[in-house]
UniProtKB/TrEMBL annotation:
Family in the record: Belongs to the sulfur carrier protein TusA family.
SUPFAM superfamilies: DsrEFH-like (SSF75169), SirA-like (SSF64307)
Source species, domain of life: Bacteria
Location of the UPF0033 domain: 2-66
Name under which the protein is recorded: Selenium metabolism protein YedF
Family annotation (CDD domains): SirA_like_N
Gene: yedF
Gene3D superfamilies tied to this protein: TusA-like domain (3.30.110.40)
Amino acid sequence: MKTIDCRGLECPKPVINTKKTLDQEKGQVIEVLVDNEVARENVSKFLSGQGVGFTVNEKDGYFSIVTEVVSEGLSNKVEEKIVDDKSLVNIGSDVILFSSDKLGKGDDKLGEALMKSFMFALSESKLPSAMLFVNGGVKLTTEGSDVIDTIKELESKGVEVLSCGTCLDFYELKDKLLVGGITNMYTIIEHLQKSGKVISL
């Protein structure tokens, strides 16, 4: 079994180190050590997305993530979503990156109103494949947001909603996330690179 110690590493290094090791250690069981919940979740989501089975154990303040035998290299495939809702044919390949909880620069109240209007209009138009929230943008997916219901509606229609774990920690909002999942910079970059078009707000 190959063990990689990612304790103390900042996002997205645990995911990147895990990917490199899996690429190099075919036919091996891999153990990844991380020391926080965000890293545990990020590595777990990465492994799931690659179709690699694993177990997670908590040990004296850190987490041990042990994979099954990796017989092949990573597939680098986008996980297919199996859905019955015919409305999901309205989803495109674009990705929207939210770096603020307000739309535009100037008056904050106006920016909040514009963001609310934008989200509503988005829910009635061609949908993006994913919505990524970084920096102040994570305030849109957490407690106190005026657009939570609209984002939940978009998620229910098949839009992937992901918030930066480092950003949630910085604003102390990780426990107040109300919609979507927690992600890391490596996954954000993957989404941006695979998208048809990136819209940055």
